[in-house]
């Protein structure tokens, strides 16, 4: 990934609004190689899935009726959690810079552990940076 200004690649046609906004925001700031574009596409699709899950949860609520009518946790919550994990892994694979970095870097397990002892950045790291980009802040 480089910060050079190259012609931006159009967002893939299968992206919804949230994924397209994220694609445009990120590609406005960074240039990628072919493999990184694949990762970015997967990240944007994951963001679209999360948007659909969030909309369904807003409509259905966090509890649903079980097979005998008893209240139970909505299974979409587990899927939401899994999609967030996938998004985090894709963001890490893209090695987008976090606040205070000029260039992103892939972090080893030891570096991740060390980062947990550091004071968290004001903006909350990569995932919140992605959310900011999605909203057009970053």
Topology:
Blueprint lengths: L16 H13 L4 H27 L2 E3 L5 E3 L2 H19 L14 H9 L7 H11 L3
Helix pairs in contact: 1-2, 1-5, 2-3
In words, what does this structure look like?
This protein is mainly alpha-helical and 138 residues long. The chain has one domain. It has helices spanning 17-29, 34-60, 76-94, 109-117, 125-135, and strands at 63-65, 71-73. Strands 1-2 form a two-stranded antiparallel ribbon. α2 (34-60) runs antiparallel to α3. The radius of gyration is 17 Å and the shape is elongated. The relative contact order is 0.14.
Features:
5 helices; 2 strands; mainly alpha; single chain
Taking all residues together, what is the mean pLDDT?
82
Helix and strand run: HHEEHHH
Shape verdict: elongated
Taking strands numbered 1, 2, ... along the chain, how are they ordered across the largest sheet?
A: 1-2
* Number of individual domains: 1
In short:
The chain has 138 residues and is mainly α.
């Amino acid at each position: 990934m480089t910060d050079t200004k190259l012609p931006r690649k159009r967002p893939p046609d299968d992206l919804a609004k949230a994924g397209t906004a994220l694609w445009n925001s990120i590609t406005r700031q960074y240039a990628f190689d072919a493999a990184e574009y694949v990762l970015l596409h997967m990240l944007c699709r994951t963001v679209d899935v999360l948007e659909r899950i969030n909309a369904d949860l807003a409509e259905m609520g966090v509890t649903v009726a079980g097979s005998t009518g008893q209240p139970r946790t909505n299974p979409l919550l587990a899927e939401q959690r899994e999609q967030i994990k996938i998004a985090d892994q894709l963001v890490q694979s893209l090695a987008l810079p976090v606040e205070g970095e000029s260039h992103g870097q892939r972090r080893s397990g030891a570096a991740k552990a060390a980062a947990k002892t550091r004071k968290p950045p004001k903006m909350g790291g990569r995932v919140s940076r992605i959310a900011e980009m999605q909203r057009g802040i970053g």
